[in-house]
C-alpha cells in the first residue's frame, strides 16, 4: 500500500495519526485539569507505528496491545466516544469503567486488549494465532509491545511458541528507547532488538518507526508471510515517546536536548511534508480539523453519558 | 438422574480424567489439550495416555517447558474462540505461570466489562505423598481461591474427576482443576455418559450425629477411613467434600454443623491462611455459630515445606490416624 503517493491511504494514515495525537493531547489536558482519574501512558510521538502496522491488517485480524495502547486501539478502528467514556469512568465506556486506559479492548475490531503487564500480551497473541491455525483460518495476529518487554520471560516464551508452531503472528516492537526510565543502551547488549529474532529462527527487521510507510511495508511483508503459513516475524520500529512514562514521571533520566531532537523528527510533521503533493495543503488542514472535531465530539458524548454504576460491580467477575 | 447417567464402570481416577478429555474433544472440536509431555509420552502421570493417537498432535499438543507461555497461549486461544485444556505437570509450576493465571485469565472478563470470556481449564497434579519434596508436592488451592475470576475444583473420587472436569470444560470461565497425585491410581465407579457435574455443589460423603468433618482432595478418603475407625469407637461423624472451593457450596456444611454442633476441618495445605480458615469463618458467620458445642477445629498440614524423607513427609500432613485423634479429642472434650 502506497501511503505517500496514493491519496486515499495517505489521507487515512494522516487522519488516524492526527486522531491519536489529538486524543492523547486531550487526555493529557483532562488529566492535568483534574477531570480524569487514575493514570495513563501516552504514546505521543509514536503514532506512525500503530497506523502503519494496522493499515497492513484486514477485517478479522487480531491485535494485542500494551499499557501504552490508545494508538493501537484507534488505529484498529475503535470508537473514540467509547474510549473517551472509559477514561472518564462512564457506563458507556468500552469496559464500563472496569478497565480504564490500561485495559481497553475492542473485541469488534479484533483488539484482544491492552495490558497492564509488560509482555503479558505476547503469549496471548501466540495463543490467538494458535486458534486461527487450528480453525484453518487466514487471520493474522499483530502483537504490539515495547522495548521493555523483550527482557521478560513472557516475551521469550510467547515468541518461541509462535516460532516452533509457525503461527500467524507478527511481533511489533515499539522501541521508544525507554522501559520506564531504563534506556535501551542499559537494558540489552544487542545493537538492534530485531537481532533477537535470530535466536528463535524467525526473520527480524528494524525500521524507522517514525515513518508510517516503512512500518507498513515491514508489517505488510510479515503479514503476507504469516498468511502464507510461513510463521512469525519480529518487526522492530524505532521511535520515541515525547511524554513521560506515565503521569508521575519527572523525566530525570533523559535530557531536554534529547527530547527536542526527537520532536524534530515528529512522525506527523514529516509525513505531512511527504504527502504535500499528494493531498495538498487544504486536504492536510482538513485532516487536522477532522481529527480535532472527532476528539471533541467524543469528549462531549462521554461527558453526557452516565457514570459507571457500582450497582452491577460484582456481576461481570464471572461469565454466565 | 437419567438411566444413562447411572451406567457406571470401574475406572481409575486417571482413566476417568482421560475419558472426560476424550468425550469433551469428541463432542466439541474447539476443545484441545496443551502441555508438557502430554503427547506420545502420555503425560507425566500417564493421564493423557493414548489420546495423541486418537486425536492427533494438533489437538494433543506437546509444548516446550514454558509454563507461562503455555497458559498465555491458552488465554489467547480461549479469547479467539477455542476451549483449551492446559496440563501443568505439577501444580507447583503454576508459580511460573502466575501472571497469566492471575493477571490475565482471571481478570480479562471483568476488565473488559464482560465483553470477552476466557473459557479455559488448567489441570494440575497436586499434593504430597510421592517423595517428590518441596517443589513438587505443594497444595496451592488457597492461592487460586483467593483470586476473583478463577474457579477452583478439587475432585476426590474417580467419578468427580470425570464429571467435574467436564463441567470445567463447559464453563465459560478459567477453571483450575487440582488433581491429587495419590488419587490417580485409585479406582471407583465412573459414569459412562458425558454428563457434567455442577460446579458449586458439595458432596455429603457420610452423615453422622456427633461431628462434621469437612475435607478436600486426598483428605476426603482419609477422613472416610477415619470415620470407619471412629464408628468402631462409637463416634458417628459426617464427612463433607466441598468439591469446588470456588464457587463454594457452604449450605450443606452449615446445615450439618447445626445438626452435629461440632466441626473439624481437614486440609493437606499448611494451616496459615489456608482454605479451611475460610470454611471456619463461613461457619462462624452463619446460623451454625449458635449451635456450636465446641470451638471449630482445624487439622492441617504443618507450616513447613514438604520434606523428602517418607516419615517426615507423612508427619507434615494429616494422616487418617491424625483425623481419628483430632475427632476423638473434639467429641470427648466437648
Largest sheet: number of strands, sense, barrel closure of chain A: 5 strands, parallel
Give the oligomeric state: heterodimer
Shape of chain B: globular
Number of E strands of chain A:
7
Unreliable segments of 5+ consecutive residues of chain A = none
The overall pLDDT average of chain B reads 97
The residue-averaged pLDDT of chain A reads: 96
User: Which pair of chains forms the biggest interface, and how many residues does each contribute?
Assistant: A-B, 46 and 42 residues
Determine the number of helices of chain B (DSSP H or I, runs of at least 4 residues). Answer: 13
Strand content of chain A: 5-15%
Q: What is the name of the CATH superfamily of chain A?
A: Thiamin diphosphate (ThDP)-binding fold, Pyr/PP domains
Question: N- to C-terminal separation of chain A?
Answer: 43 Å
Quickly give the CATH architecture of chain A: 3-Layer(aba) Sandwich
According to CATH, the homologous superfamily of the largest domain in chain B is: Thiamin diphosphate (ThDP)-binding fold, Pyr/PP domains
Low-confidence stretches of chain B: none
Protein model, in words:
The complex is a heterodimer of chains A (about 325) and B (about 325). Chain A is an alpha/beta fold. Chain A has a single domain, classed as 3-Layer(aba) Sandwich (Rossmann fold). Helix content of chain A is about 45%, strand content about 10%. Chain A contains twelve helices and seven strands. The radius of gyration of chain A is 19 Å and the shape is globular. Chain B has two domains: about 10-190, Rossmann fold; about 205-334, Rossmann fold (3-Layer(aba) Sandwich), CATH 3.40.50.920. The N and C termini of chain B lie far apart (about 40 Å). Chain B contains 13 helices and 14 strands. With about 325 residues, chain B is an alpha/beta fold. In chain B, the strands form three sheets. In chain B, strands 3-2-4-5-7-6-12 form a seven-stranded mixed beta sheet, sandwiched between helices. A five-stranded mixed beta sheet of chain B has the order 9-11-10-13-14, with helices on both faces. In chain B, helix 4 packs parallel to helix 5 (about 100-105). Chain B has helices at about 5, 15-25, 50-60, 65-80, 100-105, 110, 140-145, 160-170, 220-230, 250-260, 275-285, 310-315, 320-334, and strands at about 10, 30-35, 60, 85, 120-125, 150-155, 175-180, 185-190, 205, 210-215, 235-240, 245, 265-270, 295-300. Chains A and B meet through helix 5 and helix 6 of A and helix 4, helix 5 and helix 6 of B.
Amino acid at each position: 500500500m502506497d501511503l505517500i503517493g496514493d491519496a486515499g491511504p495517505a489521507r487515512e494514515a494522516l487522519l488516524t495519526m492526527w486522531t491519536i495525537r489529538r486524543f492523547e493531547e486531550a487526555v493529557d489536558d483532562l488529566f492535568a485539569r483534574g477531570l480524569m482519574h487514575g493514570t495513563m501512558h501516552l504514546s505521543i510521538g509514536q503514532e506512525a507505528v500503530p497506523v502503519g502496522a494496522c493499515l497492513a491488517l484486514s477485517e478479522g485480524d487480531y491485535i494485542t496491545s500494551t499499557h501504552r495502547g490508545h494508538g493501537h486501539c484507534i488505529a484498529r478502528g475503535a470508537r473514540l466516544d467509547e474510549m473517551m467514556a472509559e477514561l472518564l469512568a462512564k457506563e458507556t465506556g468500552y469496559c464500563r469503567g472496569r478497565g480504564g486506559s490500561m485495559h481497553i479492548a475492542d473485541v469488534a475490531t479484533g483488539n484482544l486488549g491492552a495490558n497492564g503487564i509488560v509482555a503479558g500480551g505476547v503469549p496471548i497473541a501466540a495463543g490467538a494465532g494458535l486458534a486461527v491455525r487450528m480453525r484453518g483460518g487466514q487471520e493474522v495476529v499483530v502483537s504490539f509491545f515495547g522495548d521493555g518487554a523483550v527482557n521478560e520471560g513472557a516475551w521469550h516464551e510467547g515468541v518461541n511458541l509462535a516460532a516452533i508452531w509457525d503461527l500467524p503472528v507478527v511481533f511489533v516492537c515499539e522501541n521508544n528507547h525507554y522501559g520506564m526510565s531504563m534506556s535501551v543502551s542499559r537494558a540489552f547488549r544487542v545493537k538492534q532488538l530485531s537481532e533477537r529474532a535470530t535466536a528463535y529462527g524467525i526473520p527480524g527487521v528494524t525500521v524507522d518507526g517514525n515513518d508510517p510507510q516503512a512500518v507498513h511495508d515491514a508489517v505488510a511483508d510479515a503479514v503476507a508471510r504469516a498468511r502464507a503459513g510461513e510463521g512469525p516475524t519480529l518487526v522492530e520500529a524505532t521511535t520515541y515517546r515525547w511524554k513521560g512514562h506515565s503521569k508521575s514521571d519527572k523525566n530525570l533520566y533523559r535530557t531536554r536536548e534529547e527530547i527536542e531532537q526527537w520532536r524534530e523528527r515528529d512522525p506527523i510533521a514529516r509525513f505531512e511534508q511527504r504527502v504535500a503533493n499528494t493531498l495538498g495543503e487544504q486536504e492536510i488542514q482538513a485532516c487536522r480539523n477532522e481529527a480535532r472535531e472527532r476528539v471533541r465530539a467524543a469528549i462531549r458524548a462521554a461527558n453526557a453519558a452516565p457514570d459507571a454504576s457500582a450497582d452491577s460491580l460484582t456481576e461481570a467477575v464471572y461469565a454466565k | 438422574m437419567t438411566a444413562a447417567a447411572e451406567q457406571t464402570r470401574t475406572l481409575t481416577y486417571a482413566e476417568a480424567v482421560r475419558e472426560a478429555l476424550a468425550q469433551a474433544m469428541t463432542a466439541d472440536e474447539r476443545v484441545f489439550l496443551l502441555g508438557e509431555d502430554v503427547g506420545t509420552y502420555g503425560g507425566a502421570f500417564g493421564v493423557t495416555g493414548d489420546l495423541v493417537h486418537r486425536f492427533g498432535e494438533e489437538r494433543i499438543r506437546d509444548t516446550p517447558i514454558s509454563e507461562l507461555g503455555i497458559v498465555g497461549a491458552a488465554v489467547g486461544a480461549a479469547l479467539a474462540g477455542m476451549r483449551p485444556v492446559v496440563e501443568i505437570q505439577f501444580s507447583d509450576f503454576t508459580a511460573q505461570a502466575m501472571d497469566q493465571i492471575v493477571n490475565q485469565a482471571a481478570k480479562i472478563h471483568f476488565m473488559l466489562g464482560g465483553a470477552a470470556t476466557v473459557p479455559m481449564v488448567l489441570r494440575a497434579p497436586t499434593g504430597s505423598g510421592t517423595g517428590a519434596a518441596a517443589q513438587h508436592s505443594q497444595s496451592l488451592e488457597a492461592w487460586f481461591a483467593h483470586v476473583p475470576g478463577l474457579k477452583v475444583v478439587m475432585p476426590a473420587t474417580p467419578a468427580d474427576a470425570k464429571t467435574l472436569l467436564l463441567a470445567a470444560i463447559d464453563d465459560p470461565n478459567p477453571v483450575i482443576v487440582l488433581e491429587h497425585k495419590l488419587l490417580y491410581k485409585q479406582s471407583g465407579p465412573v459414569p459412562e455418559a458425558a454428563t457434567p457435574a455442577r460446579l458449586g455443589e458439595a458432596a455429603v460423603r457420610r452423615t453422622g450425629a456427633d461431628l462434621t468433618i469437612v475435607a478436600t482432595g486426598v483428605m476426603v478418603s482419609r477422613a472416610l477411613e477415619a470415620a470407619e475407625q471412629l464408628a468402631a469407637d462409637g463416634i458417628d461423624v459426617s464427612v463433607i467434600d466441598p468439591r469446588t472451593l470456588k464457587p463454594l457450596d457452604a449450605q450443606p456444611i452449615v446445615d450439618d454443623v447445626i445438626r452435629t454442633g461440632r466441626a473439624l476441618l481437614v486440609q493437606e495445605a499448611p494451616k496459615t491462611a489456608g482454605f479451611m480458615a475460610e470454611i471456619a469463618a463461613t461457619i462462624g458467620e452463619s446460623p451454625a455459630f449458635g449451635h456450636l458445642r465446641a470451638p471449630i477445629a482445624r487439622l492441617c498440614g504443618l507450616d513447613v515445606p514438604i520434606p523428602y524423607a517418607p516419615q517426615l513427609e507423612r508427619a507434615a500432613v494429616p494422616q487418617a490416624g491424625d483425623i481419628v485423634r483430632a475427632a476423638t479429642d473434639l467429641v470427648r472434650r466437648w
